[in-house]
Amino acid sequence: MDMFYRSFLDPDIVSMIERMHPPRVSVDNDSCSDCSLVKVDSANKHGILLEMVQFLTDLELVISKSYICSDGGWLMDVFHVTDQKGKKIRDEGLINHIQQAFGTGKEVSKELQLSLRRNVRPTHISSEHTALEMTAIDRPGLMSEISAVLAEMGCHISAAVVWTHNSRSACILYVADDSNGAPITDPCRVARVQAQLESVVEAHHVNDEKRSVRLASPPSGKTHTERRLHQLMEADRDYEACCFSCCEGIPSKDVEFYPYGKCDEERLNQCDATHVKVENCKEKGYSIITVRSRDRPKLLFDTVCALTDMQYIVFHAAVSSKGSRAFQEYYVRHKRGCTLELEAERRRLIQCLIAATERRVSHGIRLDVRTQNRLGLLSDITRVFRENGLSITRAEIGSIDDRAVGTFYVKDTSGQTVSGETLEMVKKEIGGTILVIDKSVDEQPETTHSNPSGDSSSSSSNGLVERRTVSFGSVLWSQLERLSSNFKPIKS
Length: 492
What we know:
Layout: H1 11-20, E1 24-28, E2 36-43, H2 48-58, E3 62-69, E4 74-82, H3 92-101, H4 110-116, E5 124-125, E6 130-137, H5 142-152, E7 155-165, E8 168-177, H6 187-201, E9 213-216, E10 223-224, H7 225-235, H8 265-270, E11 275-281, E12 286-294, H9 299-309, E13 312-322, E14 325-334, H10 343-358, E15 365-372, H11 377-387, E16 390-400, E17 403-412, H12 420-430, E18 433-437, H13 472-485
Antiparallel strand pairs: 1-2, 2-4, 3-4, 3-13, 5-10, 6-8, 6-9, 7-8, 7-16, 11-12, 12-14, 13-14, 15-17, 15-18, 16-17
Organism: Oldenlandia corymbosa var. corymbosa
Function: Binds amino acids.
Domain ACT: 131-211, 366-444
């Protein structure tokens, strides 16, 4: 009979510990030459790692490396971060916000948003608008049809986030009554809007593929938009199409549960796909999850989000990146206290992690749009895309004052390269300012985060030189004591 150990603390005691020992956060700009170190010392609880990563990514900071130690009732984590330009954090307002606001739910001030030039994308579902959540089979023109229906029914779309992956589409739209700008709360109107949208969403679905449309009331608390999109895509089972084979020429059946199975390290590092390996460390009582993928913004958030929502607790982790590749290693147990023993459980975890890393990958041409905000704006933009044979693969749009700012990733529906003539036509019809960025974003990472200086031999702050063939498992255990000693009391 297998026995598992799981520590237990009374919830009241946990709450008392959190009040007596709130998170202590410091920003160190001296220890590392090319990045700032954000050190967190806090009482441990389920989901706190996701809170930390979410907090930093919402501030538009790039996490290039991270070392996690949270065994027992306490955690000590270190994040190597830079701004979007690859520079250290120098803004005193931002540093103070990081040190004081973590775990408090304190909003970023308007002054700080302006100094960061933060995008107006919606990070949280707010109570100021009605949140509309939808999942559907992806097809060209879908967003055009949805936004046109809402415009016809007098629903103003103030913000929207759209993801597509594995022929699935998920979106969260923030709508308000155009007559007064208030949330839509009338039950009869809610029912009419939902019925119209269901007709659009289900128009091209077969009978056994009914999709969801939910017009939610303003939430009582905050729901993170991107985490919610992950949950919507996972509930729609977009992960089922994720492939286990890691290299060409290897039959899928040979590596179905072991994506590294027949591949050597060199081939894995050269292969551009996402690879996930799961094995058990019986002497320590952990499952070890290794993820190798293309590096990109918010990769750590997406991976930790998937692990947290699947009820896995991260006790130790080492995350790093080199060039265009990222390496993540997690020591986990399920919330029940057990490791991953069943093949079906491993299979689903592997597929979900691959899906989580791939959902945000950008395909197509990036268009940054700035124009006058108005009723039906999203409908007009998406109609122009559809009429010019373009399909949206990912989108974010929001508004500030009377201006609308959005980013759209579009591809030609016929599979051809988008011509310059088409782009000029789109610019002319939409109006405002439109910038074309990263014409080959599906062929290269959006940005390279680690090692901004370009020195391929750079070392991390603890003196460990990164190599493609190194496993961070043994490194992690040997560095925990040294890592812990880096934390110093923070004066109040």
